[in-house]
Specification:
62% of the residues lie in helices and 6% in strands. By secondary structure, it is mainly alpha-helical. Strands 1-3-2 form a three-stranded mixed β-sheet. Helix 1 packs antiparallel against helix 2. The chain is elongated.
Amino acid sequence: MPQSADLDRYYEKVEELWEKNRLEDAAKAAAGAVEALPYEPEPHLWLGDLNYEMDEWARALEHYEKALELDEMLIEAMTSIAKIRFERLEFSAAAELAEKALSIDPEWAEGNYYKALLLEREGNFSRADKYLRKASNTDPELYPSPFKVSRDRFDEIVEKALEVLTPKVRNFLKNTAVIVEQVPDIEDLRGGDPPLSPHILGLFRGTSAPERSIESAWSQMPSQIVLYQRNLEHFCQEEPELVEQIRITVLHEIGHYLGLDESDLEDRGLD
């Protein structure tokens, strides 16, 4: 049987299991393809994607890198590695891979998307928007056009979102400023354990209520809830959706002020 036919047969099996959300079984089928077809890069891509889906990023990275070793022009592997490097805050490495992918195919949607995110990290928002448009034009389903507004309009939308909070919730904001920044600062991201994702929509800065003490003047310093405009815009396609997402993000960060962890927030529908 020709090797290409073998590859198709394995892919059909992996795809069937993946569509049924049987990720571990799909990964076993992909591993079988890797063993049977050791010089084919595609099975490593499948394993990379499945491990990424299962939050096994280290394993995903190994398979993406092996796929790229087998085919140094494989832009799917380049941008998949860039995606993990970006999440790990390795921005220079991610930028190099995105640039290489776009040098091979300037219309590659994922390459344009991550190029845009990396330009945002540099504060070059006008160029970032150009690459976002290219990603959306090529693959509007995966990368829909974000809802973009001016900073002044964004501030107005934040006020609108805060107005719909209940009086009890607004009471928590009396000593907590709600501020807007464009993208998360890398030091804030590194402050998490593990480091926070650069895709986060908001952040609580300060001491949570359970940790405050009259014996510690530092713990009594005013707190902040930071909203990241660019990340929130990526998440939304229209103004009502943006208002709602800001409301949810503020509630999420108030939860952190109250000392709730991520599992507590998820239980309350604020993840």
